[in-house]
Amino acid sequence: MFKNKYQLLQNTFGFDAFxxxxxxxxxxxxxxxxxxxxxxxxxxxxxxxxxxxxxMEGVVxxxxxxLALMQDQVHGLTAKGIRSVMMSSMQSGEEIWQAQNxxxxxxxxxVFVAPERLQNEQFLNFLTTLNIAFFAIDEAHCVSEWGxxxxxxxxxxxxxxxxxxxxxxxxxxxxxxxxxxxDIVNQLQFSRSDNIIRGKIYRDNLFISVQSRQGNGHQxxxxxxxxxTNEQGIIYTLSRKNTESLSAFLSTQGLKVRAYHAGLPTxxxxxxxxxxxxxxxxxxxxTIAFGMGIDKSNIRFVVHMTIPKTxxxxxxxxxxxxxxxxxxxxxxxxxxxxxxxLGRFIADIxxxxxxxxxxxxxNLIKKYAFSESCRHxxxxxxxxxxxxxxxxxxxxxxxxxxxxxxxxxxxxxxLSTVYRTEQNFGQVYIxxxxxxxxxxxxxxNGHQDLSVYGIGNATSKALWKIIGDRLLExxxxxxxxxxxxxxxxxxMKILKSxxxxxxxxxxxxxxxKVVTQIKQQEYAVDEKILEALQALRRxxxxxxxxxxxxxxxxxxxxxxxxxLPDSEEKLLQINGVGKIKLEKYGTRFLxxxxxxxxxxxxxxxxxxxPTTQKLHPxxxxxxxxxxxxxxxxxxxxxxDLTLSTVLSHINKLANIGKIEHTKRQQLFATVPTNETVTxxxxxxxxEVGSIEKIHHHLAIFKQxxxxx
Length: 708
Ligand SMILES: [Zn+2]
Prior knowledge:
Elements: H1 5-11, H2 22-30, E1 35-38, H3 45-55, E2 59-63, H4 67-79, E3 84-87, H5 93-104, E4 110-113, H6 121-128, E5 132-137, H7 152-155, H8 159-163, E6 168-173, H9 178-187, E7 196-198, E8 206-212, H10 218-226, E9 232-236, H11 240-252, E10 257-260, H12 266-277, E11 283-286, E12 299-304, H13 311-318, E13 328-334, H14 336-347, H15 352-370, H16 375-382, H17 395-398, E14 404-406, H18 408-420, H19 427-434, H20 440-444, H21 461-473, E15 477-479, E16 485-487, H22 489-495, E17 502-504, H23 512-521, H24 527-544, H25 548-551, H26 554-563, H27 568-572, H28 579-598, H29 617-627, H30 632-639, H31 643-655, H32 661-668, H33 675-688, H34 691-704
Parallel strand pairs: 1-6, 1-7, 2-4, 2-5, 3-4, 5-6, 8-13, 9-11, 9-12, 10-11, 12-13
Antiparallel strand pairs: 14-17, 15-16
Helix pairs in contact: 2-3, 14-15, 18-19, 19-21, 23-29, 24-26, 24-28, 31-32
The protein binds zinc ion (ZN).
């Protein structure tokens, strides 16, 4: 019976219709043309060569870089009732003989081979005895040295055209810039250089976020995983050691997880692989050795614990999420420390051209990570594809109007310290000087005599690190090969106050512990109201097929339940409600809130937030505790802050109207003071005029009398 492509598509592959671009490629192959298809992972590349294989006379030779990949393909085809074989170093002599026999008598339609086999004279001679329908080349970006996974064996594939000039070549890859694309077509000696079909880079079912990593990132990861209970995902780390330690940590959190890296014994590695593929475990913590060719469509999330080396690698690795087209989430945690480490790896590359290319690629992904514009748009743009902002599928689009903090003053202190220490030191040392550390190295260098010594001690060490990172991000500072910080022209402009420096306020959060505390303790709410808001959120999530927390996070709902906003203006003041979300969901939430206010249960009276100015989380955390009627002593303990810091918070909160002045008095009345000392200070104030001057005299007194 004559079969056409549509019947095959339905009966053998189980699809009613071709996905975008598939049919165009199938037609070109059937037409015996050379064709290059660039289609993101999950776009359905393999169908493009499997279907024509069944419609054409002869066998299809599929070139594939990895044994595991070939095995998966052979299994998958067998399941569809299509006979195929692989010829690799894994087969015994007898198996190879059998495979050759099957190929010669037409019993199989596809043969999978590694590229190096095609350099074997004997094998090439064998191929000439077959009727070859076409060559399919998977992971074709490996052909190009401009790609991220260049393989010398792939370079030799150019010889296919010289040996088989009449046979068409279909090449496939998930990622290729225009430069790589041209290189592939040239190297493979396509008869027509314009037979290139490019799919959209944009994967609209992936939600992308990128965050600066706090410490080892474990807390951020746990927060992320809370939204993915019982779902499968991959977590990529930089080193083998990290995969093991992170996997051990996640196990202690009760998660079903395994580590995977190239250094594991083969058996253990295979076990981990099959456990993951068969859903025996939920999470694979892996180095980049894992995942190429993994044919698992229900991966719901991919996390990068460190920054990948290139945009290509990042896009390919994150692309393993959501291949079934269902909503999935990817998260990248970056730190400037990673960039330093990767930079040192690159410094070891001997070939100058490759080394420069590697630096260039690293710099591009750094820009991406730090960028505040649409992630999907940036990725598309990188791969020479254009798209408008995604609006809803990335962190930057969802939070376009995030609060920013001006850190120009701290930036100047940091940069002056780099300057005063003659641009000879790294970040840790600079922070030591800023904080007035008694570190031996600082004292031996005589840096305690600099005017900048200790000028930064009102700011914590962790915050100084964030500020230093921000200065690296915006290229006010660069790092030389000895890890010393150097000032750029841009730094000079900041120092001269010609440029200001700001940062997303949330990046100033010193550790996620505080953030979690705030989430739990911030506002007292009526549980019924909160439940009603959550129900509406679930309803919208179902309608839009989106994770609920992407619509509004719990913090936003808690604030809504507490403040009961009754206008768009007030709703906008809720944390996490931006203009876009207001437009999309505002009416529904306001309508619901209106009914809650008039409902027969006791609703709290709607409060307006006293100021539009959003508070730094550290004040919010203190405020939450004050609202819970905690004592000052307890607040100090719980926040792990000094008494004077907590008192300064109370003053700030009272001054901006977050707490009543009577409340301040009430709190201050409980602070123990030493009457004698207070008396001396009052006297001193009368004499010298200001607290600063008393500080100054105290410091001199300390030094003259050598009191620590
Ligand atoms: Zn976006």
